[in-house]
Structures are given as structure tokens and as C-alpha cells.
Amino acid sequence: MSALRNFLDRVEPLFKKGGRFEKFYPLYEAVDTIAYSPGDVTRAAPHVRDGIDLKRVMIYVWLATFPAIAMGCWNVGYQANTALAELGRSQADGWLVAMLHLVGAGFDPGSIWDCFWYGFWLWLPVYIVTFVVGGFWEVVFATVRRHEINEGFFVTSILFSLILPPTVPLWQVALGISFGVVIGKEIFGGTGKNFLNPALTGRAFLYFAYPAQHSGDAVWTAVDGFTSATTLGIAKLGGLEAVKDTGLTWMQTFIGIEQGSVGEVSALAIFIGGAFLLYTGIASYRIVFGMLFGMIAATLLFNLVGSSDNPMSAFPWHWHLTVGGFAFGLMFMATDPVSAAHTDVGRWIFGAFCGVMVVLVRVINPAFPESVMLAILLGNIFAPLFDYGVVRANVARRQRRLATN
């Protein structure tokens, strides 16, 4: 590493103001700060309260996704290999066969090794496209504005890749992350100034622009000619009884043995990574527990009221917790430090609002079986209002206290 440090120090004058490559300084700075901690750590938003810099915060979040990645890749492979066995096929088609043989893997649904690598080789190109295309836009805007490349994109890229179906076309991945980075963040000034979660913004764009590749029952199993709905899709039509009729148990949804996006299936893996974020203080426990309490309260209310023609009204809260994207949204999306509320009380309100909205959309709206993405984006829009209300209430309380003294 000393050789790299010496090289970076030697070429630094070329990228400083007045140097030959002055306009490419953001690119140089990005390489430098990836390898080494910068001398100044809180020069731009979002600020942190101790000596840790923004890069380390983002690395913590990046590392926290690893359990969900590992479990998600295995589940994608398990679902695909099981489907191949049901179809009577010995292997998949195309380039995937060669990639699996490269690591000594096959198509046995009972093999952890085979299943993991099947899912990994499907997820890796999605992540690479996300990182390259999104990183390109980050460099472009940083160069034009002549500011540093922000490490926040490391988190945006990996989160975006984990909330997509395993069969998503790569050109749609590029289009979605472009929309999320440019429209969801950069046009507002970049990291720290955006009011929407960029990863969810890109996902929402793809969801509504190309619904055939992002919803339904043909996009979740990476095997041509095989269809299978998500747990929420089944529940939307027939409630909990329909889910149980498929043989799926709550423990399977908790562990992550079900159809779904790569990183959203395993609540267990997500909570392991989420516990790390809570322990380090990266994620706000107020948002997490506020969203959890909001979801439980709304679910219990619907369970109490009931409905003879809406089976989702009887769906229990512990199933809402583990199916769909609720757990992932709870730990990784709603806790985005930029687009969430910033006051302590505002975070409780923001979390509760998102939790309630998840259940409202899942139960009442007949068009969307999944709702976490929409609920959090709506919460992002209202977050400044929540903070404003909290601040105004504090000011009014202090004015009343002063008036009585």
C-alpha cells in the first residue's frame, strides 16, 4: 500500500487546481479516499457525530448487506434448480452452464454450493451494470460541478441490485439506475440534498415503465418457461390459507426460501445485517421501531375489523414482516439518513407512517401486492413536513414556557 500512497502523492499535483488534469480531480479524489481515510471528514452533508467519515459509514452499510446477498443468491439458485427438476431438465441453457462448471457447480437443488453459484452468477452482472452505469453518472456530475465523488453511490448501487427480480434484463438495470441517480439525486445537487431514496426511485421507475419484467409470476424463477408467484401475490388473491395451501410455512419466509427479489427474501439475513447497523448507530432505531409498530398497529386494526371479500384483511402481522420487501425496507431503505426525517420525534412519525402505508396498500389497493417501495417514497416526500411540525411544536412549547415565567 505504501507504493500506492507514493504514486497517488506523486500524481496529485496534476489533478490539483492549475494541473494538467484539473477537471478530473473528482476521479482522483475518489480513488484516494477509497484506499485511505481523508483528513477532513464532515465537510459536506450528511454529517456524522464522531470521527468516522462518510466513506466508513457507507462501507458499514455495504458490509451489512452481505448476509442478504449470500442467502438471496442461494435462494435464487434453489428456486431455479428445483424448477429445473420439476420440468425434468438436467441443466439450464446458455452461458450460465459454463460459469457454473468454472467453479465446479451443477444443478442439484440439494447442494448449497450449486444453488449459491447459480444465483451468484445471475446477480453479479446486475450489480456490475448497476455499479458501472451509476458510477458513470456520478463521475459525470462530479466533474461538471467540480466537487468530490461521493461514496454514497456504493450503497445505492448494491441496494438497487438487491431489490430487482433475478431475471431482470441488463439494459433495464442500466436504465433504472440512471433514472435513480440522475432524477432521484443528482438534479437536486447530489448526496445530502436529495429528498427521495435513489435506489427506490430507480426501482419505482422500472416497476411502472416495464411492469411485465418486474411483477407477475414469470419473473421470479430464473428458468425459461416456468412461472411461480411471490408469497404476496398468492396472499393477495386468497389470503393466508392460499399461502399455506402451497406448502409454504412462516419459517420458510423468515429464512428466505420463497420467490422474490434477490436481497429481500430472507428476513433472518436482513435482520443480522440490520442488527449491525443498529449497533453501530448507522441506522436509526427510532425509524426501525416506528415502522415496525406502525405496521403491527395497522395490521391488528384490519384483523379486528375484518372483511368477507378481502382475504388480506386477515393477514397476520408476523407474515407481513417476513414476506415481500418489508424487512429489507425496514432495515436498509427507510433508514436512509438523507431522505428520512432528521428530528428524533420526526423519525418515530416517519417510521410509523411508512409502516401504516405498507399495510394500507397491501390490504386495500387491489393493483399492487407489494407496497414497501411506494410507502417509503411517500414517506420521503412527507419527511420534511414531519420535521417542520416537530420543530414548530418545540418552538411553540418554548414560547409558552417563556410566557409563563
TrEMBL record:
Modified residues (FMN phosphoryl threonine): 230
Enzyme nomenclature, EC number: 7.2.1.1
Reactions the enzyme catalyzes: a ubiquinone + n Na(+)(in) + NADH + H(+) = a ubiquinol + n Na(+)(out) + NAD(+)
Cofactor: FMN
Domain of life: Bacteria
Keyword Transport recorded: yes
Main location: membrane
GO molecular function (one): oxidoreductase activity, acting on NAD(P)H, quinone or similar compound as acceptor
Ranges annotated as spanning the membrane: 57-77, 120-140, 152-171, 261-280, 287-305, 317-335, 347-365, 371-391
Location in or out of the cell: Cell membrane
Any single Pfam family the record assigns to this protein: NQR2_RnfD_RnfE
The entry's keywords: Cell inner membrane, Cell membrane, Flavoprotein, FMN, Ion transport, Membrane, NAD, Phosphoprotein, Sodium, Sodium transport, Translocase, Transmembrane, Transmembrane helix, Transport, Ubiquinone
A GO biological-process term: respiratory electron transport chain
Membrane topology of the entry: Multi-pass membrane protein
CC per GO annotation: plasma membrane
Role this protein plays: NQR complex catalyzes the reduction of ubiquinone-1 to ubiquinol by two successive reactions, coupled with the transport of Na(+) ions from the cytoplasm to the periplasm. NqrA to NqrE are probably involved in the second step, the conversion of ubisemiquinone to ubiquinol.
Family: Belongs to the NqrB/RnfD family.
Oligomeric and partner information: Composed of six subunits; NqrA, NqrB, NqrC, NqrD, NqrE and NqrF.
NCBIfam families assigned: nqrB, PRK05349.1
PANTHER family tied to this protein: ELECTRON TRANSPORT COMPLEX PROTEIN RNFD, NA(+)-TRANSLOCATING NADH-QUINONE REDUCTASE SUBUNIT B
Name of the protein this chain belongs to: Na(+)-translocating NADH-quinone reductase subunit B
Organism annotation: Sinimarinibacterium flocculans
Gene that produces this protein: nqrB
